[in-house]
Inverse folding.
């Protein structure tokens, strides 16, 4: 008996796109990819679950992370993922490294969607450092009341800074106390306005700002407000990009996906 091939079913099979997300750019990319590739691809977005109330995303959502390189590799293989877009935060170096290795192992094609860095205004009092430990060494010489916008991780680097009071802005309240001596937590979600940031700096008599070089419009207002107030700004540099294709444009990323389908 001759086997019959269902060519119609084969033609209808859709490629799968995995977006490693957790950013506004990832959500926009997912929405546009779902609309543009409705007849060609299924779009899956993963979010690590850093916050308990993530914003909605188009397509299928996978939450909670993959469990390292092997977990991501298994997911790509089990789901038959053809294309991977790393649209994570610029400082999510671990997942970017994992994606690089997992895609090499599975031969899934990958591109990184990079958020452009901030262009710091001329005359700003900016010191760039490599990490939180470097930030601690600088801050103890520059400020006594510091607005911290780097998230809750890595704050133990400042635990020995007894003379600095920290105002820590987070998306949501942490489950455990922070590893700081003297601090207050406020919660808010971007985007922020320059006027709001001016008020915040004034209300708490802030004399220094700590931020990651995250880029993007949603949180740049704090940089503008700090420059206007002539405050010292300590910026943590981004980790290096992993090798491979990358773009800073969602349009270009969509075109890249189209070319692969």
């Amino acid at each position: 008996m001759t086997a019959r091939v269902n060519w119609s079913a084969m033609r209808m099979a859709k490629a799968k796109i995995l977006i490693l997300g957790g950013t506004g750019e990832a959500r926009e990319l997912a929405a546009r990819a779902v609309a543009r590739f409705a007849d060609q691809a299924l779009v899956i977005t993963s979010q690590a679950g850093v916050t308990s109330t993530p914003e909605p995303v188009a397509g299928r959502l996978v939450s909670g992370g993959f469990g390292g390189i092997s977990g991501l590799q298994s997911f790509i293989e089990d789901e038959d993922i053809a294309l991977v877009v790393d649209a994570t935060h610029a400082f999510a170096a671990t997942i970017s490294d994992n994606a690089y290795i997992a895609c090499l192992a599975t031969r899934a094609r990958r591109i990184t969607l990079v958020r452009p860095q901030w262009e710091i205004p001329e005359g700003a009092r900016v010191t760039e450092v490599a990490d939180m430990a470097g930030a601690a060494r600088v801050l103890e010489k520059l400020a006594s009341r510091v607005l911290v916008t780097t998230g809750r991780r890595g704050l133990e680097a400042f635990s020995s800074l007894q003379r600095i009071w920290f105002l820590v802005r987070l998306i949501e309240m942490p489950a455990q106390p922070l590893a700081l001596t003297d601090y207050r937590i406020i919660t808010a979600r971007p985007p922020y306005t320059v006027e709001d940031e001016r008020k915040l700096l004034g209300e708490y008599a802030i004399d220094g700002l700590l931020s990651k070089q995250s880029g993007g419009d949603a949180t740049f207002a704090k940089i503008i407000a700090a420059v206007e107030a002539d405050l010292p700004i300590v910026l943590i540099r981004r980790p290096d990009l992993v090798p491979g294709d990358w773009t800073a444009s969602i349009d270009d990323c969509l075109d890249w996906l189209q070319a692969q389908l």
